[in-house]
Amino acid sequence: MAGAPDERGPGPAAREQLQQQHVGCRVFPERPAQGTPQQGFLSSFFTSNQKCQLMLLKTLETNPYVKLLLDAMKYSGCAVNKERHFSCEDCNGNVSGGFDASVSQIVLCQNNIRNQAHMSRVVTHELVHAFDHCRAHVDWFTNVRHLACSEVRAANLSGDCSLVNEIFRLHFGFKQHHQTCVRDRAILSILAVRNISKEVAQKAVDEVFESCFNDHEPFGRIPHNKTYARHAHRDFQNRDRYYANI
């Protein structure tokens, strides 16, 4: 997207607001076709890579959002392997992570992920995309409405628009503030990965918003915090037992 006119995408201030976002393989033109990280022999010893790997491991083992999504993907026949499906890499700009649909791999931007909480939000956001990729025939690269739907779901279900995060961004509001945040984050994410106008991105989000905002799978509800996510995970684990007793 380098060299695109200003009116074709968000300016620097808008890009700064994106703490995590879906990014397809086009955003990583330097990535080899197989999607493996570009690192030298000694790069695995660098602190940023070690820190990324350790934070990722902790997130996979302890975060209730992530644990539910991993169970749901396994249940759907798309079991996730840490070594195969995650890659800690240095990324350009302020991108925090992305789902590379061409190789079904989540990229974690080790130079931009700041702390454990940030890692957990990025992994959750990208796992929503991976879950959508698993359960549906998503046309990531040519159908902007498909991308918009997954971005709405990721913003809605990952904690991107939690009250704490919105206060941190100095965004305040009361009536339908969560919906407004989800809509805005989805539009920003689309603009970060597609060379289209803001009007086209807004139109795509508007067209899919109602149905995709109300699609809470696999959580069954909007997990506003970790307590909600734990309850959702428990319900998911018990779903077979529930249906067996009907």
Main sheet characteristics: 3 strands, mixed
Distance between the termini: 53 Å
Q: Roughly what is the average pLDDT, rounded to an integer? A: 81
Q: DSSP strand (E) fraction?
A: 5-15%
Tell the overall outline.
globular
Number of strands: 3
Order of helices and strands: HHHHEEEHHHHHHH
Provide the helix percentage: 40-55%
Given helix and strand content, the structural type is mainly alpha
* Low-confidence region ranges: 1-44
Query: In which order are the strands of the major sheet placed?
Result: 1-3-2
Radius of gyration (Å): 17 Å
Would you kindly provide a written description of the structure presented here, covering whatever features stand out?
- Keywords: Hydrolase, Metal-binding, Metalloprotease, Protease.
- It is an enzyme of class 3 (hydrolase).
- One of its GO terms (biological process) is proteolysis.
- It comes from Vicugna pacos.
- GO terms for molecular function: peptidase activity.
- The protein has eleven helices and three strands.
- By secondary structure, it is mostly helical.
- It is globular, with a radius of gyration of 17 Å.
- A hairpin with a 4-residue loop joins strand 2 and strand 3.
- The N and C termini lie far apart (53 Å).
- The protein has a three-stranded mixed β-sheet.
- Helix 8 crosses helix 9.
- The longest helix has 20 residues.
